[in-house]
């Protein structure tokens, strides 16, 4: 496995992983809501990865296995000391093999390299495996809340989100 910076040739695969996962976790009756969330995230972030993550203090990487993009992770600067893990996804055929744990450790190291002393992330109640990964990886649950507004980060509709943080020093 090789984790490397995102390249434009990765775009279609990254886009597919993002869309497929979000459709996979869509609950019955929430299809239209998830489709509008997917489109918003594509428009505001996924379809412009080099611009979005090319800013100082940001980064976006893909994990490649045997020439195939198997997963991805982004890092977004929040302030001088704090960054957020973003868009950490693993393609269906590569799940349950430790790739999520590897991507998380990788992005934490990149955050340290950039001088951040704290890292944050969030996940929804629809992703219990992600929540468990963050808990065993040393993240502290800071709060949970019902997300009522749809943004490129949240589906909205009252879906519970869990917000975690971890010191990097």
Kindly describe this structure:
With 169 residues, this protein is of the alpha+beta class. It has one domain (2-120): Aminopeptidase (3-Layer(aba) Sandwich), CATH 3.40.630. It contains 5 helices and 7 strands. The protein has helices spanning 11-24, 31-44, 49-53, 99-113, 128-136; strands at 2-5, 59-65, 68-77, 82-90, 118-124, 140-147, 159-167. A 7-stranded mixed beta sheet has the order 1-2-3-4-5-7-6, sandwiched between helices. It starts with a strand and ends with a strand.
Index terms:
alpha+beta, Aminopeptidase, seven-stranded mixed β-sheet, globular
Topology:
Elements: E1 2-5, H1 11-24, H2 31-44, H3 49-53, E2 59-65, E3 68-77, E4 82-90, H4 99-113, E5 118-124, H5 128-136, E6 140-147, E7 159-167
Helix pairs in contact: 1-2
Strand % is 25-35%
| Number of separate strands | 7
Overall geometric form: globular
Order of helices and strands: EHHHEEEHEHEE
The CATH fourth-level homologous superfamily: Gcn5-related N-acetyltransferase (GNAT)
Question: Architecture in CATH?
Answer: 3-Layer(aba) Sandwich
Mean pLDDT: 94
Rg (CA only): 15 Å
Give me a quick take on this structure.
The longest helix is centred in the middle third of the chain and has 15 residues, at 99-113. The model has no long low-confidence stretch (mean pLDDT 94). The chain has 5 helices and 7 strands.
